Amino acid sequence: MGIIKVENIRVFAHHGCLKEETKIGSDYRVDLEIKANLQTSAVTDQLQDTVDYVFLNRIVREEMGQPSHLLETVAKRIIKRILKEDKKVKKVTVCVSKLNPPIGGDVEMVTIKMTERRKNK
């Protein structure tokens, strides 16, 4: 097994419980950690034998583009799509951070972190 990290994906999106948040939008940061068997790709040197970073970035951007009240909902959608669309992925951890959240005070970011493993069938 091995780990692929795609870190600090910056996205402007429209999530939040307040009407103003969904209307105005905010800056977000998404970090992914993917666990997969990287032994084959290490030998073959072929993109089809690994998890493509472009694929991961595309899913993050598409799911972040769909407004939600909660970051947990967005994170779960990202996880579900990655596991559904790439069978090489065994485990996904996603962190979704809202930068400069409107919560009263000087707060750099709020982050939710979720992890899910592929269920063996």
In terms of topology, how is this protein built?
Elements: E1 2-13, H1 19-24, E2 26-36, H2 39-44, H3 53-64, H4 71-85, E3 89-99, E4 109-117
Antiparallel strand pairs: 1-2, 2-3, 3-4
Helix pairs in contact: 3-4
Provide a descriptive summary of the structure in words.
This protein has a 4-stranded antiparallel sheet. The protein is elongated. It has 4 helices and 4 strands, in the order E-H-E-H-H-H-E-E. The chain has 121 residues and is of the alpha+beta class. 22% of the residues are buried. The model has no long low-confidence stretch (mean pLDDT 94). Helix 3 runs antiparallel to helix 4 (71-85). It has helices at residues 19-24, 39-44, 53-64, 71-85; strands spanning 2-13, 26-36, 89-99, 109-117.
